[in-house]
Amino acid sequence: MNGAESLVKTLLASGVDTCFANPGTSEMHFVAALDDHPDMNCILCLFEGGVSGAADGYFRMKGDVSATLLHLAPGFGNAFGNTHNARKAGSGMVHVVGNHAGRHMKYESPLRGDVPGVAGAVSHWVRESADATDVAADGAAAIRAARSKNGQIATLILPADTAWEAGSAPLVAEPAPAPDRPSAAQVEAAAAALTQPGAILYIGRGAMFGPARRLAGQIAAHTGARLMADTFFARAERGAGTPVMGQLPYPVPPKMEMLKDATQIICVGNNRPVAFFAYPDRPSLPEPPTARVHELCDPQMDAPWTIQALAQALDIPADAPFNAQPLALPDAPTGAVTLEKVGASLAHYLPENAIVMNESITSSFVVMPPTVGARPHDLLTGTGGSIGICLPCATGAAVAAPDRKVLALTGDGSAMYTLQSLWTMAREQLDVTVVVFANRGYQILHGELNDVGAGQPGRNAARMFDIVEPQLDWVSLARGHGVPATRADTMEAFNKALADGFASDGPSLIELVCP
Amino acid sequence: MNGAESLVKTLLASGVDTCFANPGTSEMHFVAALDDHPDMNCILCLFEGGVSGAADGYFRMKGDVSATLLHLAPGFGNAFGNTHNARKAGSGMVHVVGNHAGRHMKYESPLRGDVPGVAGAVSHWVRESADATDVAADGAAAIRAARSKNGQIATLILPADTAWEAGSAPLVAEPAPAPDRPSAAQVEAAAAALTQPGAILYIGRGAMFGPARRLAGQIAAHTGARLMADTFFARAERGAGTPVMGQLPYPVPPKMEMLKDATQIICVGNNRPVAFFAYPDRPSLPEPPTARVHELCDPQMDAPWTIQALAQALDIPADAPFNAQPLALPDAPTGAVTLEKVGASLAHYLPENAIVMNESITSSFVVMPPTVGARPHDLLTGTGGSIGICLPCATGAAVAAPDRKVLALTGDGSAMYTLQSLWTMAREQLDVTVVVFANRGYQILHGELNDVGAGQPGRNAARMFDIVEPQLDWVSLARGHGVPATRADTMEAFNKALADGFASDGPSLIELVCP
C-alpha cells in the first residue's frame, strides 16, 4: 500500500467519504487510490474556488468534513477565497494538496511554489508529510484537526513521493476534543445580565439551528432579552415556527441604531458585533460605549451546551413558550419586477425544508425580509465577504442534503466569480434553483464609495463598478455549463420559472432582470 | 491630497498608466483617486485571476509594469494562481491590495485575513504602508521593485486609513538597478564551452526576442552549438526569418533523448533544464551526468548583455550568418479535423506580427510544430503550470499591443479556469481570436496517470479527468460574455472562422471540436 492509498483508506475509515476535487499531476497516485475506492464520492469542480466553496456548503449542512484535492501552491491559491469564507463560517475541511517530491524542490521547476506559505495564511492547521509512512497518521491528524473546535481548515501537504512510496497501515482518526465551554461563573454572570433591561442574546453557529435555537428563543421570551444574530452567518433555521430573531444590518448607522439601547450583549457562538469595514468617521464597534459585552462563548466554543447552561441557570422549563415566527405566505405578485415583489414571490413558492443560500448582497436587503415568514427553511449566507461563495456553497449543500430543495440567490457580480460551479450542478444533477439578480454590476460599491465620503463615481469608477458594455447573458452562460435557464423580466415570468425550478429535480437558473 | 491620491499620482509620474482591477470597499479611496485621473487606464476584470494574468501578458509585450487593484486577502488569493505564473514568466507588476484600517484589525470582522501571508507566498517584495504619509514613498519603492531584476512581483498593502488620511507629495520611482551580469571569467569559460562538440546555448527571457535573439542565432551558427529553449517560456520571436531554435519537449523521456549528446549546456536567461514534475523512476535533471551545466545568467540577470558578451568573446562579426527559419505556409487543409491539420491551418492564416498565446497543453504538442515556419510572430506560453493563464494573458497582451492581432489557443479545461476574461475582451473590444480545443477534459492527466505508473483510469479518475456529462458549450459561454463565437467541427468551418477572426477587429471565439 502506497502513501496515497493509506490516506484514502484513513479518510474512509474515519468517515470522510466525499472528496471535492480538481487534481493535477502531483496528485496522480491519490487519484489512482480514489479509483480503487468507489465508496469515496469524488466530485469534480472546474475551478478550485468551486472545490473549497462546496466543502464549505457540505459542512454547513452535513455537520462533518469532506476532503478536497488541490494541485500545488496555485491550486491552493485558487481555493483561497472560498477557504477564507469557510473559515469565517466555521466549516471544517481537509484540504489535501500535492507538492513536488522532496528531491525535485531544489530545482526551479514551473510549479515549485510555497505551498505551506499560501496554506498557512488561511488554515488553522497545516502539515507537510515528511515520509510516506507518515501519511496515514498525518491524515488522521488532519481529520481530527478539521473536526476540532466545531470545524477548522486543516491542510495536509503531500509531496508526490510520499504518495507513491510505501506507506503504513491506515488509521482511524481519533475523535476531536470537545470544544471549550465557559465557566460556571461566566454562565451565572451572563444569565443575570440577560434579565437586565436592554439585554441582547447575540447568537451564532451551533445556537442558530436545532434544539439550541429553540432554547435560545425560550431564554429570550423568559428574560425579555432580544434574540439577535449577525448580518451574515453560516446557517440559521428560519421561517414559520422558528423563534423570532433580529439580525444586525450591514451598514454602520442602522447597526448602531439597532444597538443604541443595548446594555448587555451576551455572545453565544458569536464574536462581538463589529462593523464589516472601517470608515473614516464611524466606529468599528457599533454598540454604545456603556453596553457591556459578554464574550461568553466564541464560535470555536460549545454554543449548544452554553445555551443549555444558560437555560438551566435561568430555571427555564422545557415547555417554556417562545415568540414563534407566524406563517406569512403572501400572494405571488404580478407585473413589473421590484425587489419587494421578488421577496414576496420567494416567500410564496419556497418549499418547506428548503435550503436557501443567499449571496445577493444589495438585493437581499430588500428581498429577504418578506421571506421571514415563509415555510421553515435553512438560510446560509456568505460569511467572509469574499464574493463567489453562493454557487459553490449551494453545490456542496445539495451534495450533503440530496433530499432537500436548494435555492441559490446571487448577485451577478458574485456569480461571475465561480460560475464554473454550474457545471458541477449539472454533472451531479443537483436539485438547485439559481436566481441571478442581474442588476448589472457591483451595486454595493456605489454605496460604499458614497459611504467612505469619496464622492460620486466618474468614468473610471463607473467602469469598475458597472458590468455593462457588454451585458452578461446569464441564460447563455448557464446553458454553456449544461444548466437550463430562463430570463425573467416580469413577475409572471419569474413566478413561473421559480415554480418550475422547484418542481424539477435537477439544476436550473433564472436570470432576473432587476433594478 | 490623501494617501490614495498620492499613490495614483506616483504611479502616473513613474510611467505606470494601466491598472487592471477588481476593487472592493477597502479600495474605495483608491477608486476615487483613479476617478480623478482619467489618464490612468482602468480595466475591469470580473475575477482577480483575470487581473493578475492580464498584468502578466501586459508586461510580456510592453516590457514594463502595470498596477493592479485587489481586495484584501481573498482578492489576492483569487489572483494567486496567475501571479504564480507571472512570477515564473519574470513579469513585473505592482499589486495594490487594500486591507482593513489598522484600528479595525483587532476585531474578527468577516474580511480580516492574513494579507501579508498570502502575498508573501508568491511576491518578491511585500510592504504594508504604516501611515498615509508613507504611501507615496512605498508606492515608488514598489514600482522600483517591480522593475528590478527584469521584472518582479511587488505587493503594496494599503490599510484603508492610509488611503483616506492625508498623504505626502507624490514621488517618481527611482530607476531600477541594472540586473546582475556574469563575470568576464565566466563569460570566457562559457564562450570556450560553446565551441565544444555537443554544446547547447540554452536561452530564455531577454535572449528570446529582439537583437539578442538574432545574436544568439549567430553564436550558434558560428560555434556549431545547438540553440535551444525550454518547453515553456514568457515570450519568443518565432516564425519565418527567426534563428532556428530547438525546444525541450514536456515529457521526461524525449527530453532526456534530446539532451543525450549534450556535453556543455550554457544557460542564458534561463535556469538549468529540469523535469516539469518528478516521477518515481525518472530523474529530475534530464541531461546526462557527464554534461557540464553553466548557470551563466539566470532569468533575473542581464541576458541581452550576456549574449552580447559571448558574441564579443567569440569575435563574431555583426553580419555573421545564422540559420534562419524558412517561410513555410501550407495550404489550408480541408475535411475532418485533426490536430495536424489545425496546425497547418494556423500556419496558413496567421498574420504577420501576430501575438500567439498558447495554453493548449496536449493539443499544442501536435498543433504547434507546423506553425514554426509561419509569418513572424511572438509566441507566449504558460510558464508556471497553473492552468487558466491563456485568456487573461491574451487580454493583457492585447491591451499592451493594441495594433497587433492576438491569437489565444487554449484547452477547454484551462479556459474554464478564467473564462471571465472573455468579458474584458468584449468590454475593451480587444483584437483577440480565441481557439478553444474542445477535447472534453484534462487530457494531460490521462497521460500523467499512466506516466506515474498509477494504472488505467477507473470511474473516479475518469470522472475527475473528463469534462463530459454535460459537455461544455463554448459558443454559449462566449456569447454569454458578449463575445461572438462559432463551433467548428470541420476544417472548412475552422478555416473560415479563423480567417473571420483575424479579419475582424474585436474578439471572437472558435470552439474547435477536436480529438
Automatic annotation (TrEMBL), chains A, B:
Keywords: Thiamine pyrophosphate
SUPFAM superfamilies, per database record: Thiamin diphosphate-binding fold (THDP-binding) (SSF52518)
Residues of the Thiamine pyrophosphate enzyme TPP-binding domain: 377-511
An example molecular function term from Gene Ontology annotations: flavin adenine dinucleotide binding
Gene3D superfamilies hit by this protein: 3.40.50.970
Record bears the keyword Heme: no
GO process annotations (BP): small molecule metabolic process
Pfam families: TPP_enzyme_C, TPP_enzyme_N
Signal sequence interval, chain numbering: none
InterPro entries registered for this protein in UniProt: THDP-binding (IPR029061), Thiamin_PyroP_enz_TPP-bd_dom (IPR012001), TPP_enz (IPR045229), TPP_enzyme_TPP-bd (IPR011766)
Keyword hit for Cytoplasm: no
Domain of life: Bacteria
Domain Thiamine pyrophosphate enzyme N-terminal TPP-binding: 1-104
PANTHER family: ACETOLACTATE SYNTHASE LARGE SUBUNIT ILVX-RELATED, THIAMINE PYROPHOSPHATE ENZYMES
Family: Belongs to the TPP enzyme family.
The protein's name: Thiamine pyrophosphate-binding protein
Organism field: Actibacterium mucosum KCTC 23349
Organism lineage string: Bacteria, Pseudomonadati, Pseudomonadota, Alphaproteobacteria, Rhodobacterales
